[in-house]
Design a protein that fits this description.
Length: 201
């Protein structure tokens, strides 16, 4: 069984970025655009983990997290809080509201995915060693697909708020892993070699 991740995020570009990366890792994903949708999605989808933005319309991520902890049916649901509020006092508030982990924007998708896996292992041991290895086909096609996706994020202005004075440029290269031939690398399940360069505007 694939774990289902609920994303509650009102910024479309960030929700798209999260969904893309989570689905490439083998997760099922549901998305809610505000706090009220998030509450409805909890009952509809019964997710295995929720990634919740702090600043949400209608019901804040902080209040959503509190309601998750109050409800018997979601009391044990793992929650990762995702927010631009990175001060220590804000992190403490998020954790005290019931979040299991806290990630500040801008964030590394690699680190976020590692935290998702770690939180799931703690909450659902069945998703650990006994769960099929997450991953999507990689090699040159996978790397090219990821590079094209990053280019799309640049076009829609995703990086404008995160990097207001730098211009991201995407390039990619497929390199064999240690001990692998280039032919083996092309069929590997691990995409690698994507780089984002930041240039002064």
């Amino acid at each position: 069984m694939q774990p289902l991740i609920l994303i509650v995020e009102d910024e479309e570009a960030i929700a798209t970025l999260l969904r893309y990366n989570l689905e490439r890792e083998g997760f099922k994903v549901a998305v809610a655009r505000d706090g009220e949708e998030g509450l409805a999605a909890l009952a509809e989808h019964r997710p295995d983990l929720a990634i919740v933005d702090w600043m949400l319309p209608y019901v804040s991520g902080l209040e959503l997290c509190r309601q998750i902890r109050r409800r018997p049916e979601t009391h044990g649901l793992p929650v990762i809080m995702l927010t631009a509020r990175g001060e220590e006092a804000d992190r403490v508030r998020g954790l005290d509201a019931g979040a299991d982990d806290y990630i500040a924007k801008p964030f590394s998708t690699t680190e976020l995915l590692a935290r998702v896996r770690a939180v799931l292992r703690r909450a659902h041991p069945a998703f650990g060693d006994n769960h099929p290895r997450f991953g999507a086909p990689g090699g040159e096609n996978g790397v090219r697909e990821l590079a094209e996706f990053l280019q799309e994020l640049i076009k829609i202005g995703y990086f404008d708020k995160q990097l207001p004075t730098r211009m991201p440029v995407v390039s990619f290269e497929v390199k064999p892993m240690p001990g692998e031939s280039p032919e083996q690398s092309a069929s590997s399940s691990i995409p690698y070699g994507v780089e984002v360069f930041l240039c002064d505007q």
